Amino acid sequence: MKIISAKVIVTCPGRNFVTLKIETDEGVYGVGDATLNGRELAVVAYLEEHVIPCLIGRDPHQIEDIWQYLYRGAYWRRGPVTMTSIAAVDMCLWDIKGKVAGLPVYQLLGGKCRTGVMVYGHANGTSIEDTIEVAQTYKAMGYKAIRLQCGVPGLASTYGVSKDKMFYEPADADLPTENIWSTEAYLRVVPELFKAARAALGEEVHLLHDVHHRLTPIEAGRLGKDLEPYRPFWMEDAVVAENQDNFKLIRQHTTTPIAVGEIFSSLWDAKDLIQNQLIDYIRATVVHAGGISHLKKLAAFADIYNVRTGCHGATDLSPICMAAALHFDVSIPNFGLQEYMRHTEETDAVFPHGYSFDDGYLRVPEAPGLGVDIDEDLAAKYPYKRAYLPVNRLQDGTLFNW
Ligand code: GCO
Ligand code: MG
């Protein structure tokens, strides 16, 4: 079997998605997500100019060899653009292998370790009361785990809070919008949110929160400690993960579980955090961390240290990534939780898929391959629209982390 062609499809059914499609001489094709939010066209160029020419004529069954060829062969290792491109190829090749074998990809990964993938939904609102009301809606829909984000009194807008309470799309403008941030105001409101949420939602539902890289280690330690009485499932991205010694300070002050890694692009970004047991959940996902092949290695390494997975699943990861993540999630022993932000109807129509939500769990597609496709005619109706994530400034104008 040979790869005879590959193309990159860019579509914007409400937000931008980049998809790689690899075709073979036997008529079987595979699809892979290649979306890197706000930097989409860098990946398009990397794939078109530097990856696709190397794929033509290769045997698509040699998934690991092609992975190594693209990783080692580039000389310039790692980085989000490279690893997203490699991930897209990897997804296509697993899709092809599954279709040829007549098996869903999870069977090729060792079979199911569980019947469904527990997911968390996003409840947000401008006030604590609004957020809890939305969380009640999620609970009524069957969600067993809910992320809580609320507006910060005195700030016009903040990460995780949208006008549409059930959908959130941060890449909202053709030049970055500017948000204003106050750590002091934020640290006052979050423990109040969790206190009210635990009282209203009961003891059983898992509650999560994303700090989105905004605290210093000692501030994160304090927030973790303040949240302990309400037993959060995790506190995510409490600090930036560049200087990873930061996490030691958090650990010294709180038993609130720590999740990190949605922007990690390989095992090497996570290795020290895992090996030193400074985190509890690793959020790297298929599209940004080198595909199913690389994420399997990362998860196996994490398992040795009792670190579980919590794959990123925001709307900027396409349904192709979600399908791939589900095959991965059901097949590993140390699965923790999967984020599920839900795509819009327009996006779901462009990417017909076989996964479905059922009582708090996503069920993995059973069709051969990944069980997801792209409707190219429909995709062509939604041309690319430049869109950026916001930037954040302190009240005195200093540029901060978003
Ligand atoms: C999450 C994330 C997202 C990111 C987005 C950036 O936890 O889901 O933090 O909301 O901000 O994916 O592209
Ligand atoms: Mg996050």
Structural summary, described in words:
- The protein has 402 residues and is of the alpha/beta class.
- The protein has 13 helices and 16 strands.
- Helix 1 packs across helix 3.
- The mean pLDDT is 97.
- Bound molecules: D-gluconic acid (GCO) and magnesium ion (MG).
- The site of D-gluconic acid has 10 residues, from loops.
**Low-pLDDT residue intervals, each spanning 5 or more residues:** none
β content, as a range?
Answer: 15-25%
Q: Tell me, what's the shape?
A: globular
| CATH architecture name of the largest domain | Alpha-Beta Barrel
CATH class of the largest domain reads Alpha Beta
Radius of gyration in whole Å, from Cα?
20 Å
How far is the first residue's CA from the last residue's CA?
A: 46 Å
Topology-level CATH name of the largest domain: TIM Barrel
Q: What's the structural domain tally?
A: 2
Give a count of the beta strands, DSSP E runs of length 2 or more.
Answer: 16
Short key terms for the protein model shown above:
ten-stranded mixed sheet; Enolase-like, domain 1; 13 helices; single chain; alpha/beta; binds magnesium ion; globular; 2 domains; three-stranded antiparallel sheet; binds D-gluconic acid; TIM Barrel; 402 residues
